[in-house]
Amino acid sequence: MLQMSLFDPNPSTARPESLGGADVIYADSASILSRPTGRLADLDFVINPYQGCTFACTYCYAAFFVAEEAQRERWGQWVRVKTNAIAKLRGSRQDLRGARVLMSSATDPYQPIEQRLELTRSLLPIMQQRGVHLSVLTRSPLVTRDIDLFSEFERISVTVTITTDDDAVRRKFEPQCASIERRFAALRQLSDAGLRTRVNVAPLLPMRHPRSFAEQILEAGASRVHIGTFHETSGPFAAGTRQPALKLASEFCWTEQRRTQAAEMLRSYLNQDGRRLAA
């Protein structure tokens, strides 16, 4: 479990100031539970233990939500740890029994710093005790570490993001992320543990064999699949695909037409034989 001294006002244990070349920043947050809007409006709350993400995905929309221009430009090179997250969640007066909570919407709760700090892991028992219906979204195999805690929830689902079947593509668009094979292995481990699992294919990246990719998803036991493509931002702080990813897409000739065709093929394979897995 978490070394609580890391989050004391005057910690006796040294906090890592960098990890893998990325800056680690420590700061209190005004809140830990947020009311979602837009496409997440059907949820009750979202919880982001961190701000920023060192997975450095070229397309990540969360960079648009960062107020400081310098931080937006250095997206992927820093992460801010919400040092009062545990206290904020424990002290929340919100009625969370049966509340639908997503972790996370603007960061990855299992990015590399989590292995050192275990902040996400420390939040899980609090949410379970308060009766939260939790949805976890990550691209990290580290998520399997917490299967023991997930199993205590009355209702939980874990979604693993897998955006392509080609590791050469993955290395270009998601340079700091785990391989496709490791993510599918994590998905199978979660499913085998009896957890409800889903796959997030968003944004859909250049793909070689949509049918084989669909078969892997089915074999891994996923119950739902979300497929999404690139989209332009509509203004300040509006979610959209970042320019580095759009440039890479152009280099791969990954046009809107090709993206749409691949998405339709995936849905066709996943929704046949009476199945309705893909949206």
Textual characterization of the structure:
The chain has 279 residues and is an alpha/beta fold. The protein has a single domain (4-270), classed as pyruvate-formate lyase- activating enzyme (Alpha-Beta Horseshoe). The chain has ten helices and eleven strands. It has helices at residues 69-73, 85-91, 112-117, 119-129, 147-150, 167-173, 180-192, 210-219, 243-251, 256-270; strands at 18-19, 22-27, 33-34, 45-47, 50-51, 78-82, 100-103, 133-138, 156-161, 196-201, 224-227. It has a seven-stranded mixed β-sheet with strand order 3-4-7-8-9-10-11, with helices on one face. Helix 2 (85-91) packs parallel to helix 4 and helix 8 packs across helix 10. It is globular and about 50 Å long. Residues 234-239 have low confidence and may be disordered.
Q: Tell me the quaternary state.
A: single chain
* Annotated CATH topology: pyruvate-formate lyase- activating enzyme
Instruction: Using the alpha-carbon principal axes, give the shape.
Output: globular
Strands, count: 11
Unreliable stretches (pLDDT < 50, length at least 5) are 234-239
Helix content: 25-40%
Could you name the CATH homologous superfamily? Answer: pyruvate-formate lyase- activating enzyme
CATH architectural category: Alpha-Beta Horseshoe
The topology string of helices and strands comes to: EEEEEHEHEHHEHEHHEHEHH
**Whole-number tally of structural domains:** 1
Straight-line N-to-C gap: 37 Å
Given helix and strand content, the structural type is alpha/beta
Radius of gyration: 19 Å
Please count the helical segments: 10
